């Protein structure tokens, strides 16, 4: 079948020929005035039905658009959503730890919402929320970051503005208290997007951003996890690059929609327990762990970073929405629950569209996450689907 540049058929509907429509138009035109008017109305209605049927069939085939409405994304009027990684297996969760998880996520939501109510920008909102999560020792970002193979805490972060598609990122910083704030300074105060290691540390010093002794990031729980990994590696025949449990390679992140309709996304992490050789995952990689574009969506991811980089997860979700017309819910599910899962990649994402609709899919046992709506109602989830 011949199709035009938009992928739509140039051929008439198979049950209605052009000759038939032309014949009918001529017949109606030759009728008496009164009868002609009645017949013309019927003919116009019939023609519209035919045209609409052609358009719906061919356009639907060309773009493979789902037939879900905007409301099918479920949750609406969201101004901020956050995640705090994949959490820990339910069997290992205690009431005390769960309580802290929920309290810290709610605290982050309320911090961001406070900025929203003061007409702060989406960048201000996500930075405020992620700062809280970076300061919470339960999560793998900032204080509480996991240990590298060499016994260090190396931090990565990125932030992106949907308004200008501007972005900033840092990796392998070891003394910056809140890496997400440094990433924002890279975006706003430098001509670059991504700074790494000593260069990022030097830039932080020049910017006057708060620094801490590297020991600030250490926690007993993370130290224990690292030591257990070293023991596992020491066993005869054990692969030196064995993948740690998923709850030791989480992240924190936020996505926001401000009063002006601008979107922003931010992600921060300590990386993967026992990582070697300067390994960097998806969290500071724009398009992999973080992405935002006004009019479409803002995305922050968590999970096995290598897969998120290979599949450009954050950007892919936005692209499915932008070019194929998928809802935020359908796009996020397609990438996380179909593409990534089939490839063996474990993780999740929070995705907020330009209308305040949120999707929070994950293909692991849990993902610590929450959102807050325009009216200030906060909702926090761990294992609940």
Q: Which helices and strands appear, and what pairs or packs with what?
A:
Layout: H1 18-29, H2 33-63, E1 78-83, H3 95-117, H4 122-135, E2 155-161, E3 166-173, H5 179-189, E4 194-196, H6 197-207, H7 220-234, E5 252-257, E6 263-269, E7 290-293, E8 297-303, H8 305-310, H9 313-324, H10 328-343, E9 347-353, E10 358-359, E11 369-373, E12 378-381
Parallel strand pairs: 3-4
Antiparallel strand pairs: 1-5, 1-11, 2-3, 2-6, 5-6, 7-8, 8-9, 9-10, 11-12
Approximate strand percentage:
15-25%
Within the largest sheet, what's the order of strands?
Answer: 4-3-2-6-5-1-11-12
Helix content: 25-40%
- Indicate the mean pLDDT: 84
Oligomer: single chain
The SSE order reads HHEHHEEHEHHEEEEHHHEEEE
Based on CA atoms alone, the radius of gyration comes out at: 26 Å
What would you say this structure looks like, in words?
The chain starts with 17 loop residues before the first helix and ends with a strand. The strands form 2 sheets. The chain has an 8-stranded mixed sheet with strand order 4-3-2-6-5-1-11-12. It has a 4-stranded antiparallel sheet with strand order 7-8-9-10. Strand 3, helix 5 and strand 4 form a beta-alpha-beta unit. It is globular and about 50 Å long. Helix 4 packs antiparallel against helix 5 and helix 9 packs across helix 10. It is built from 10 helices and 12 strands. With 385 residues, it is an alpha+beta fold.
């Amino acid at each position: 079948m011949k199709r035009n540049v938009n992928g739509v058929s140039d051929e008439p509907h198979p049950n209605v020929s052009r000759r038939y429509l032309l014949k009918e138009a001529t017949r109606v035109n030759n009728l008496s005035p009164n009868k002609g008017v009645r017949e013309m109305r019927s003919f116009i209605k019939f023609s519209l039905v035919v045209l609409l049927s052609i358009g719906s069939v061919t356009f639907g085939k060309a773009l493979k658009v789902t037939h879900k409405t905007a409301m099918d994304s479920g949750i609406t009027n969201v101004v901020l959503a956050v995640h705090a990684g994949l959490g820990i297996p339910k069997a290992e969760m205690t009431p005390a730890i769960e309580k802290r998880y929920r309290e810290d996520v709610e605290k982050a939501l309320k911090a961001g919402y406070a900025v929203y109510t003061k007409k702060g920008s989406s960048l201000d909102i996500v930075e405020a929320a992620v700062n809280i999560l970076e300061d919470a020792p339960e999560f793998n970002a900032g204080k509480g970051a996991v240990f590298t193979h060499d016994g260090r805490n190396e931090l990565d972060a990125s932030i992106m503005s949907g308004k200008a598609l501007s972005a900033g990122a840092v990796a392998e910083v070891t003394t910056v208290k809140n890496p997400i704030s440094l990433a924002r300074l890279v975006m706003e105060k430098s001509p670059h997007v991504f700074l790494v290691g000593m260069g990022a540390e030097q830039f932080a010093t020049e910017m006057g951003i708060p620094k801490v002794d590297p020991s600030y990031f250490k926690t007993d729980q993370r130290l224990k996890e690292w030591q257990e990994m070293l023991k596992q590696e020491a066993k005869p025949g054990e692969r030196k690059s064995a993948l740690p449990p998923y709850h030791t390679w989480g992240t924190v992140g936020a996505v926001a929609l401000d009063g002006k309709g601008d979107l922003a996304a931010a992600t921060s992490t300590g990386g993967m327990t026992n990582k070697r050789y300067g390994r960097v995952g998806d969290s500071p990689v724009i398009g992999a762990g973080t992405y935002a574009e006004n009019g479409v969506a803002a995305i922050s991811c968590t999970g096995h970073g290598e897969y998120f980089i290979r599949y450009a997860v954050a950007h892919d979700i936005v692209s499915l929405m932008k070019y194929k017309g998928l809802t935020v819910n359908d796009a996020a599910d397609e990438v996380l629950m179909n593409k990534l899962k089939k490839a063996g990649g474990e993780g999740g994402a929070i995705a907020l569209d330009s209308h305040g609709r949120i999707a929070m899919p994950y293909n692991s046992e849990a993902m610590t996450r929450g959102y807050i709506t325009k009216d200030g109602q906060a909702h926090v989830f761990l294992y609940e689907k």
